[in-house]
């Protein structure tokens, strides 16, 4: 017998948080997220998603132990899909058992139907602006900061429940130990009249993060699945990123004084937490701070990048992604990053994908968004 119950108390929440680590305990590439961060993420008081969305979590049980989990959520800011209200599922983890997956999706889909959803997509934690996609290729590498890691069989189990591919998200990695391609750097420097690329100004930190969010909302507004970042989400992002941000690793492009594009590179904190197994006490904080400040992190991730639509199609705008990546080089070398991951990119974003490929980036992971009519 499989019983699916909503997560309604602290004990169930802890089981929900720790279940993926139980499922993937034997996977050498699994990295356990910090449990305290997951608790905050699932708490409406601390997660601004709940100001414009609602969600429900479920656990599947067999013989008194958890064997699967799922979330379902409605985002009031999400545009309709094919004229129908869009619902989401996410945070999927389960034992390799079709009956468990069927029971989980049955609960999530019924909840979404009750709230008027005609289509469901996922996985998202809780929206496309947070951790997104189910890993379907690239299982032999550990995940970067805020990226998923899933067992090889999970995608096929989702498809058994009537879900089909809606969009793939791709991740690229570049070896930067010896520096970036100098010939391409000369190409990037062409057509720069009126363009200045500058680092983040920490003296105006909150204002600068707001500026990045403004560019992001404009740049991505016509992209598949777009949901805008809100002011509370911008505030939360500013607070969460500040301890690990280096102003030289955030570059903003201005054209005749107007901010039009940006790139954000963060140290891959997953390197620092890999052996903490979700715990920070009693010595986790000390280990984490030592590793971050001691520059033992050798990989970085570019999670955010964008160019305003008004500039994206002209000659200068098309060169801005290249210019911004090269602008990261001096500080990145100071950090002694050996490898950068650019993730994620929509599979149909060929303009940026070609730039990354020109620079030697190799596609290493694919994350799939699934969709189903309800």
Short description:
The model has no long low-confidence stretch (mean pLDDT 91).
Structure in words:
This protein is of the alpha+beta class. The chain has two domains: 3-169, Gcn5-related N-acetyltransferase (GNAT) (Aminopeptidase); 174-365, Gcn5-related N-acetyltransferase (GNAT) (Aminopeptidase), CATH 3.40.630.30. 33% of the residues lie in helices and 29% in strands. The protein contains 13 helices and 15 strands. The strands form two sheets. Strands 1, 2, 3, 4, 5, 8, 9, 10, 11, 12, 13, 14 and 15 form a 13-stranded mixed beta sheet that branches. Strands 6-7 form a two-stranded antiparallel ribbon.
The CATH C-level name of the largest domain is Alpha Beta
Which architecture of the largest domain would the CATH scheme give at its second level?
A: 3-Layer(aba) Sandwich
Shape: globular
Q: In sequence order, what are the helices and strands, one letter per element?
A: EHHEEEHEEEEHEHEHHEEHHEHHHEHE
Main β sheet profile: 13 strands, mixed
Question: How would you describe this structure in keywords?
Answer:
374 residues, Aminopeptidase, 2 domains, 13-stranded mixed sheet, 29% strand
